[in-house]
Amino acid sequence: MFVDADNGVVASSAVVPVPAPPLGRRIQDRVRPYLYVLPALVGVVVWVYLPVIRTIRLSTVQWNLLPTKPKIPVGLDNYRDVLELPEMRRAVWNTVLYTVGMLPFSVVIPLAVALLISELTGRLRGVYRALIFLPVLVAPVVVAVLWRWMLHPTQGLVNAGLELVGLTSPNWFREPSVALWTVTAITGWKIIGFSVLIFAAGIAGVNQDVIDAARTDGASRWQVTRHVILPLLSPTTMFMVLLTLLLSAQWTFPLINVLTGGGPLESTTNVYFLLWKFGFRNFNVGFSSAAAVLFFVAFGAVALVCVRFIDRFSFHDS
């Protein structure tokens, strides 16, 4: 109790207890956030986790996809056969080469292009972005047909241009020493616009006040890029490196399937093409599933290591 001497008012300082909400209301408040993410969770379970579980089950059987044929349990024999297969070792090595070859197209060149485009203003910037991003919108099969025509050994525009300057052109898709790098270059040409878009978004997110402060202190354009923009783009750069490590084999698969069929002499085969070959050309579902499980574990380990590197070496503007 307290008394207001001026007004002669007596008031109480006791806190009036607020009644607890009904049990049904409390349950509703707890469940509501999960209802918002339920559709996404259902999609992840149906399209990701259930196929993974089914693949693990199929990796322990021998089956040819025919519903009338029984699934014969073979235990871990499929895994042992996959690890002992010389063709698998060649595909893994080619996947490594594809990944290394894709890094300039997914990181180095797009970063340089994004830095150059960031200096443009007005409609010109939008025009350049649209032109660079255009190959991403083209279907991989159309890209393969286009480049097969351009690199034709006798009628292709590229070979005709090389002959005009006195250079001998190789058979781009039939020479083992050239075919893999040809597929890599075509794939890089297709996805370079996507990488430029990612880096352009990263550059747009750099705090302009930090750049203005560096210029006020007398930093040149190269110094601003080297000591301000590039460090702040490290999360974006590491993200693109991670995507390249995980998705290079997937990016190159449709072009391999259309242009080379894994040849010549298995020189362009990668892990995704080999999985497709085992499962849908040889109809050895158990073998293909065992290889898929092994690749799933391997790529998961690579992703885990890359995430650790991103957390450790990325620089964020505080």
Please give a quick description of this structure.
Helix content is 72%, strand content 3%. The protein has 318 residues and is mostly helical. The radius of gyration is 29 Å and the shape is flat.
Main sheet: strand order: 1-2
Percent of residues in helices = over 70%
Low-pLDDT stretches: none
Strand content: under 5%
CATH architecture field: Orthogonal Bundle
How many angstroms separate the termini?
Answer: 50 Å
CATH topology type:
MetI-like fold
Q: Give a quick account of the main beta sheet: strands, pairing sense, barrel closure.
A: 2 strands, antiparallel
Cα shape: flat
* Number of continuous helical runs: 12
The structural class is mainly alpha
Average pLDDT, rounded to a whole number, is: 86
- Radius of gyration using CA atoms only: 29 Å
